[in-house]
Amino acid sequence: MAFLSDTLARVKPSPTIAVTTKAAELRAAGRDVIGLGAGEPDFDTPDNVKAAGIAAIEAGKTKYTAVDGIPELKQAICAKFKRDNGLDYTPAQVTVGTGGKQVIYNALMATLNPGDEVVIPAPYWVSYPDMVLLAGGEPVIAEAGLETGFKLTPEALEAAITPKTKWLIFNSPSNPTGAAYSADELKKLTDVLLRHPHVWILSDDMYEHLVFDNFVFATPAQVEPLLYDRTLTMNGVSKAYAMTGWRIGYAAGPEELIKAMRKIQSQSTSNPCSISQWAAVEALEGTQEFIRPNQALFKGRRDLVVAGLNACPGIECPVPQGAFYVYPSIAGCIGKTSKGGAEITDDEAFATALLEEENVAVVFGAAFGLSPHFRVSYATSDAALTEACARIKRFCEGLS
To answer: Where are the domains of the chain?
Structure first.
């Protein structure tokens, strides 16, 4: 009898974490590595949020809380959904987890049976398919390539849905591409979903506040109110409030689903960190004045990286509308050989050779379900990004 679970064989470790870890190891060994793999802002948590966490510690708010969130945070989340998205929820329809990843996993664990299918547009965040597999479901990948701006078309969504489909996982702005759907584009997708009442929507809105060029964010239940009763809208404080390590994600949806997710959480982690919850209350209820300056900062970095990568022979980098990633194509580099003698057979070979020869760490496109591409996180300094682009250009110019 095997000791490890058969389920474990269905999944793989996170490639983005692996790249970040590898870059840190090489840096510790003395290499001048520029890491472009981490999906987190490089600036600090706002002072008012830090102060709220400190105040919670000093007030002794360090005990167990309700399994899926303190009432004050649930109220703040309800107010946020109303303020930002025009969505009405009660605290009984809200769940708070240890990061957005746990919220998604709880939803899948609470709903999937063996053979249930989950439609996932590709490129996708690396964890979506593996979480589906861990929960016993089957990911169905619907490709959304460069020719559609990395956006799922209504036709591709329709083709992916079967009688076994239980969920569509939807992410806008997207990790890894930064692609964002307008309300009109979303409406075309929700029209498809209206024709398939057995399909639920899990909308990952984590990058909601990181949008550029006057883009107006919209979320599925907002665009099509008829889908409200079968939509789980997930968000968190990690990206917009630079709180990745605080580990607070949240979602709102039908009360029956929220109760089922609470049951899962009660037998796994129980409540999220009490201190982080109080800090999240301040994040959602306190000043939002830093969001626009941060958007402007990221937009400048985006423009720097897009221009730098498009100057590299063999690379095509579209301009994303949100998040802090670009997802350039390296179709023009495939089949060539690097100065160091590496054959660029695919995007993983490209990323490996780039790290070995130029000390730039990126995540290869196959990890996100669409090749030949790689992902750059531009959530780092202008100086680091400028140097990284120069190294990538030098690497590409050396291909023959």
So the answer is: 6-44+290-397, 63-285
Going 175 to 177 to 182 to 187, the CA torsion angle's sign is negative
Q: Does the bond joining 372 to the residue before it have cis omega, within 30 degrees of 0? A: yes
CATH H-level superfamily of 6-44+290-397: Aspartate Aminotransferase, domain 1 (3.90.1150.10)
Q: What digits encode the pLDDT tens for the residues 345-387?
A: 999 999 999 999 999 999 999 999 999 999 999 999 999 999 9
Q: Name the 3-class secondary structure at 168.
A: strand
Bridge pairing between strands 249-252 and 231-236: antiparallel
- Asked if residue 167 lies in contact with residue 120, where contact means CB atoms within 8 angstroms, the answer is no
Q: Does domain 63-285 have CATH number 3.40.50.300?
A: no
At which residue do the structure tokens 């998040």 appear?
A: 323
Is residue 142 within a helix (H) or strand (E), and if so which, with residue range? strand 138-143
The tokens describing 107, both together, are 């939803």
**pLDDT digits 0-9 by tens, 247-297:** 999 999 999 999 999 999 999 999 999 999 999 999 999 999 999 999 999
